[in-house]
Amino acid sequence: MLFERPDGGERAILIHLHTHEMDEREDPQEFRELAHSAGAECVAFIEINRYQPSAKFLIGSGKVEEIREQVKTLEVELVIVNHTLTPSQERNLERALECRVIDRTGLILDIFAQRARTHEGKLQVELAQLEHMSTRLVRGWTHLERQKGGIGLRGPGETQLETDRRLLRIRVKQLKQKLEKVRNQRDQARRGRQRAEIPVISLVGYTNAGKSTLFNSLTDSLVLAADQLFATLDPTLRRLELPDKGRIVLADTVGFIRHLPHKLVEAFRATLEESSNADLLIHVIDAHEPERTLQIEQVMNVLKEIGADKIPLLEVYNKIDLMKDVQPQLQRDETGKPQRVWVSAQNKQGLDLLVQAIDELLTDDIYVGTLRLPPSLSKLRARFFEINAVQEEQVDDKGNYLLTIRLPQIELNRLLAKEQMDKEPFIAQYTL
């Protein structure tokens, strides 16, 4: 018979396992931050070196006994393991330690459950939790035999565990239907933006890289930006005006993490589709993070999993205010296209370079040059000023307007076609 699980669980012992498998290794500091983000009070941090994980407990039986003594001494209600536990390992540890045990996946799911604010976010979290729980259902009591049947209900009946599993399957089916409806609504809104030819830019990156701070700085919004993992869970969309491209939509999305539970990726697919259907991805990277190379690799893995790895991507190295002798800069590839921007979203340094890079990547062909317009075309001159295309204006000795302009080539062609004229006779000088 299993003990009754308590509702509490703030006082916790954290167990971090060092293995020889590089792919299975976790970051102990990130583990501490995850536990803190979930609201746990870490009273002990135990690091265990083990070449081969135990099938029964994941860790050795000697360590289990040692941890059990600490659980009693420190009056701990919860043990968190920085590793993925099988359902049997989780149950075996709970029996041996006589307290609640959760693994890394359960910890991340708990954080997501706390942070979900919108109806869609809550649906997605509940779905991920139920699918995770479905393999961990155990009978928490033994006094119930098979349910007794009355007239017309006699027979084998079903156990309480079977009832729980049946109800869980029904609820999972309902949640999937509701999320499918949400996905259809998102598709409809996305098609509306595509018909209006409004580009969508999606911020992606490792959790706590500064996406929400950058989002707020670019759009003057008030999205929650906190120094904690998964501060943003629900996607937020805002409008942004670019000098050349004009109006675009900027989307702030949930952060990624190493070994992000597959159930979460599946449950949040409707949200992550904002990234997989974007015109441009802005990969926000914590430039001050020592493990940034591994974080970049993890983000790219998730982008590949959701089918967003082929979308044009601009790297933004954030938090340069925490680094010495690093200034805002725009780096280009061998073809001259913007590839990487170094900024500080907190201090709003380098945001002008970022906007310039986004503008260039979204605008295929930019015309930069000087047009000579006679006084009879003053109406066209006024139109150039209306769309903020004029960078400089002079008047020659014949009274002609010399306008130095910058705007998309397609927009220039459209304006000149409206006046039923070819641009060549009016070019004073041409530069790119």
TrEMBL record:
UniProt cofactor(s): Mg(2+)
SUPFAM superfamilies, alphabetized: EF-G C-terminal domain-like, P-loop containing nucleoside triphosphate hydrolases
Entry superkingdom: Bacteria
Domain Hflx-type G residues, every copy: 199-366
Compartment(s): Cytoplasm
Binding site for GTP: 205-212, 230-234, 252-255, 318-321, 344-346
Cross-referenced Pfam families: GTP-bdg_M, GTP-bdg_N, MMR_HSR1
Keyword list, A-Z: Coiled coil, Cytoplasm, GTP-binding, Magnesium, Metal-binding, Nucleotide-binding
GO molecular function: GTP binding; GTPase activity; guanosine tetraphosphate binding; metal ion binding; ribosome binding
Coiled-coil regions listed in the entry: 158-192
GO CC annotations, alphabetized: cytoplasm
Residues engaged in binding Mg(2+): 212, 232
PANTHER family: GTP-BINDING PROTEIN 6-RELATED, GTP-BINDING PROTEIN HFLX
HAMAP family, A to Z: GTPase_HflX
Subunit structure: Monomer. Associates with the 50S ribosomal subunit.
Protein family (similarity comment): Belongs to the TRAFAC class OBG-HflX-like GTPase superfamily. HflX GTPase family.
Biological role stated in the UniProt entry: GTPase that associates with the 50S ribosomal subunit and may have a role during protein synthesis or ribosome biogenesis.
Protein known as: GTPase HflX
Organism: Entomomonas moraniae
UniProt lineage: Bacteria, Pseudomonadati, Pseudomonadota, Gammaproteobacteria, Pseudomonadales
